[in-house]
Each structure stands twice: as C-alpha cells, then as structure tokens.
Specification:
219 residues; Metallo-beta-lactamase, Chain A; 6-stranded mixed beta sheet
C-alpha cells in the first residue's frame, strides 16, 4: 500500500484493490490539486477545504468514486472504511460543527484520518477508533488541535506511523490559514527531525514496533 500527500489534509491511499482519496480541497486553500482518480472518496466535514469530491475522477473499476461523508461502516471493492463522529472544536461542535474520523483498511493496513479534529480525545473515542497503524494528524491549531495537543492525541492512539497534516505553508492563502502553526512548530513539540519523503510504501508485516514520525512532501 502506498500513501501520497497532496497538501493540506488530502491524501491518496493506493492498494491492490483500489484507491481512496481523503479530504480533497478547493483552490481557495491556495494550493491546487492535480488530476486524481479514486474508487472511494472520504469527506470528514462539509467545509470547502475538505469536501471537494466532485474534482476526483473515477477509475477503470468505477466510473465515479463512491463518496463517504457519514459515520458508519462501509465495504467497497474489498476496501473497508469505518467512520466515527467527533467535533471540529472543543465545544461539541457549537463553533464549527461536526467532524468524522475515518479509518481505512487497505492491504491489511489501517490508516486513520482525523479530519479537522478540534479537541483532545477521551477513552470512549479511542476505543471507538480502535487499533490503527497509520495516523494522519492535523497539527496546525486554530481550526484543529494545535501541535501540543496533536502530540498528546498521537500518543493516546499509539499508531506505528504518524504523518502530520493541516499546517501552514508558504503556498497557503494567508488571509485564511496564515495563523496556523507550521510543520516546524509541530516538529519542535514532537522533538523530532525526520526526513521528508515523496511517497510512503507500507507492508503490514513490516510496520515499525515503536511509533515513528514521517513527513510527506506534497505530490
């Protein structure tokens, strides 16, 4: 299984049975998505920097991607998707609404995308999410958990691999995202200096035994 990062909170998971795109964004973010194909698209919440399923093309297996934007359990072409409810802020969604945490089981690897998680997680939500191998973790603050909270969330979920997302870059529209923390802010809080890689290829039988931080460059 291979993971590619398209910036902001958008990833594509490519497995033997298909491809999943998670949280595709609108150009107002300041970034532009390339032409991407997928069999499944997951949408963590209905904000335009996460919900642009219409820009994702289908594949040889499916003319149009199967779009998932509600909690629940799904099975599409041998790929399993599990969605559990959370919130976009620390006040039960009063400020920014609800958020869905999606875990995708693909090629035996469980990849969890936290969307715009806006709060730390408690035991009941940890149990609902269950065991995961890869955590796609928002770290920028303002609209999500901040770097310090992100480290706590990662340690509470105990994945094999942590990949940061939703942080400020020079390409982001500064009027909207200029107050986000940067990747460097998160790495300082995490106390790590990992190398940046273009793509991440994973095998379920070769995952690290201790939690490892991986930074992906934008494809």
């Amino acid at each position: 299984m291979q993971i590619q990062y398209y910036g902001h909170s958008c990833f594509r998971l490519k497995g033997k049975r298909g491809m999943v795109v998670m949280d595709p964004y609108d150009d107002y973010v300041g970034l532009s998505l390339p032409n991407i194909s997928a069999d499944i698209v997951t949408i963590s919440h209905d904000h335009q920097d996460h919900n642009q399923a219409s820009v994702i093309r289908g594949t040889a297996r499916r003319d149009q991607p199967f779009v998932i934007k509600q909690p629940g359990e799904y099975e599409v072409g041998g790929i399993s998707v599990f969605g559990v409810g959370a919130f976009h802020d620390e006040n039960q969604g009063v400020e920014r609404g609800k958020n869905i945490i999606f875990t995708v089981l693909i090629d035996g690897v469980r990849v969890c995308h936290l969307g715009d998680l806006g709060h730390e997680i408690k035991e009941d939500l940890i149990a609902e999410i269950g065991m995961i191998d890869v955590l796609l973790l928002p770290v920028g603050g303002v609209y999500t958990i901040d770097p310090k909270q992100a480290v706590k969330v990662a340690r509470s979920l105990e994945p094999a691999i942590v990949i940061p997302m939703h942080y400020q870059t020079d390409q982001h529209e500064q009027k909207v995202f200029g107050e986000l923390s940067t990747l460097a802010d998160f790495l300082k809080e995490y106390s790590a200096e990992p190398e940046t890689v273009n793509k991440l290829s994973l095998d379920q039988s070769r995952l690290p035994e201790e939690m490892e931080l991986v930074v992906l460059s934008k494809s």
